[in-house]
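Listing 4. Sequential folding, example run.
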Amino acid sequence: MRILGVESSCDETAASVVEDGRRLLSNVIASQTELHRETGGVVPEVAARAHLRALVPVVRAALAEASCTWDDLDAIAVTAGPGLPGALVVGLNAARGLAYARGLPLIPVDHIEGHVRANWLLEREPELPALALVVSGGHTELLLVEEDGSFTRLGGTRDDAAGEAFDKVARLLGLGYPGGPPLSALAATATERRLSLPRAWLRGSDDTSFSGLKTAVLQLVQSPNPPPRAEIAWAFEESVVDVLSEKAARAAERESVASVLLAGGVASNRRLRERVLERAPVAVSMPPPIFCTDNGAMIAAAAFAHLDEMVSPQAPLDIHPTVKRRPPARRT
């Protein structure tokens, strides 16, 4: 079964063709990074208009790269949320229109589940049950992926997501947008590596919090004699990575999972990958960076796990940009 996946939840317009939820035939991404660099962050209305301009060319390029025609497709999948409402509406309406015009069923997909399902695009399928650590610009989640493929939310961020914290601290340090890559590059140049920043462990919970850490960096930067920027960047990255990897390792051991799955844009962070590999009590699955950022392949892969949720594009759709299939966080 060949599924066209469409993604437009934030600042990447993406489309991909995936066969049977595993075999990648194409993956095309139009990034808006340069567009939002001037404002130092994503402006929702600007993002939505950019999706309008890019979506049709991106879909055409994905079909061409896959050597597919519309007749070769069995369904169209699209991100239904969470994400920026205006950006989601562009993708949803475009996918619905294409499905209607081509007589194809439509499969709405949860964006966060899509990130997790990127691990199914790797050569070896992950073992279940699994503990998924989803770390991106807008989300920091610990999810239990059951053997039947269902998702249980164990915990998440109480304030900034890890990616947001990277961007905000990068701005405090005078770095560019997006903040993650330049901050990590700066951290790698640190020489002393003695500075220690707070870690919010939130004992008895799988939740995370980075607001206090961000404030600590602000106070350092504004102090009369601040440490070198590289030292601050290193200490910040170590604090975030330490908490995330330890939380994931503890939850994996407690839940007796067979594997740990990394997902989301921040999952491409080299230091995070190293620490999760060091601490995880079981095998770790990590997608390559191209599958960590928002992409259509992960949406198509997730859709294959929800073929029973196909809907007719002709029917009224009760689809809202919201998270599905995940109950409130379970306290431990």
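-- end of first protein; second protein begins --
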Amino acid sequence: MDGEVILRVNNLQTHFHTDEGVVKAVDDVSFSLRRGEVIGIVGESGSGKSVTNLSIMNLIQTPPGKIAGGEILFHGQDILKMNSKQIREIRGAKISMIFQDPMTSLNPFLRISTQMIETYRLHQGLSKKEAREKAVQMLSLAGIPAAEERIDAYPHQFSGGMCQRVMIAMALSCNPEILIADEPTSALDVTIQAQILDLMRGLTQRFGTAVILITHSLGVVAGICDAIYVMYAGRIMERGLTGDIFEDPRHPYTRGLIKSVPRLDKPNSERLFSIPGQPPNVVDLPPCCPFFPRCPDVRDICKTRYPGEIDYGKGHSASCWALPSRALPSRALPSRALPSQA
């Protein structure tokens, strides 16, 4: 996509110090986000998706967590070097986040009106009456029927889908430049999932908001994201435009994720594919490819060295020693190097 890069994450490292050792939840992750762009960060549970985005929001609990290295540049300013006052001015107003479970993200003891009005008054300095009017307007845009009456309800009086609509309305209430959505459809049934994704797509396009969508499902990102980043064991294994990732996946892990998605054009009798084995324990991982115990194309070198990133052009790259025979790399990057994000 063309457009101004508003967020750039460079070599981010987020570690957690435990009794068992250092958990490298995010290990040398880099990516960029342009104005109005929608990117998806995909991977199994424990791959580092949520920790990456909590790091962007500067919400890593210390201790045991610590951002050990890298930089997070928002309009050229490093969020990691900001003081608490500067971060509060950005968080919620410029960069907003929808957390994973809508039923537990809302305060059960406070009315919806109280929780929404607080955001407007804090970040926009509106009066209570003005804040309430804007809150009702956002709830209506988010598809809440009779918003003027229901704004005074408590969260337990809403269904899971309606709570998620409230969370989206709250996240977009101050017209942020970036919206981070952490598994926004995980607790919802398939029909409501589609409605929520359509709602997010429509509202973010209306407000011109860039989106980072975190999910374990490639089916979710297929119809909404411009680009996809596939994470495993704290690292990005493959990145590229959505069409390129689905049409020509290069990394064995990406191919496994795609094969794991149910297909309507396949016979019902065919057994759904699953990637063998379990994700690795990320405590003190050895300097090799973390996917090798589960990889069908494993080689001896995979067990001793981490692969460099192979650039296929058009922003499509993958880190793998066992390249697909049908596609040769245009050039090989040195180990741990990154393609240009400009």
